[in-house]
Amino acid sequence: QVQLVESGGGLVQAGGSLRLSCAASGRTFTGYAMGWFRQAPGKEREFVATISWSGGSTYYADSVKGRFTISRDNAKNTVYLQMNSLKPEDTAVYYCAASLRFPYYSGTYDSGDYNYWGQGTQVTVSS
Fold first, then answer.
1. Which residue of 24, 71, 114, 122 could cross-link 97, Cys pair, CB 3.0 to 4.6 Å?
2. pLDDT score of 27 more than 80
3. Distance between CA 18 and CA 36 in Å, rounded?
4. Residues 6+ apart with CB under 8 A from 120
5. How many Å apart are CA 116 and CA 77, to the nearest integer?
């Protein structure tokens, strides 16, 4: 079992930045790809970004490409999401997740490929 705990959410003005963190604990974190998803009120959960175990492969949703950066520190069992140039439409609960769909090789944008999920952290962007 892997436990994931997100932090770093909050209220920010449009154009501002936030850095989300996701700390993993429990059984070994080794080999897992990590992803960030978000869910806005009244909408379905959507993919934001994913990163492979090594960090060498990343993939982003078009809506955040060029503004958000996913990274990880395996020594700290932590994955990050740096969010810049935030927009009101980025307002959502952000979730991190861990996947063994492609261990050591690749991340994935399919939420069904993720084995473990955090509880989420709220990000609110005011206009």
1. 114
2. no
3. 14
4. 6, 39, 93, 94, 95
5. 14
Per-residue 3-state assignment (H helix, E strand, C coil) for the chain: CEEEEEECCEEEECCCCEEEEEEEEECCCCCCEEEEEEECCCCCCEEEEEECCCCCCEEECCCCCCCEEEEEECCCCEEEEEECCCCHHHCEEEEEEEECCCCCCCCCCCHHHEEEECCCEEEEEEC
pLDDT > 70: what percent of the chain? 100
Q: Cα–chain-centroid distance for residue 23?
A: 11
Asked if residues 71 and 54 have their Cβ atoms less than 8 Å apart, the reply is no
CA separation for the pair 21, 19 (Å, rounded): 7
Stretch among 25-29, 80-84, 91-95 having the lowest mean pLDDT:
25-29
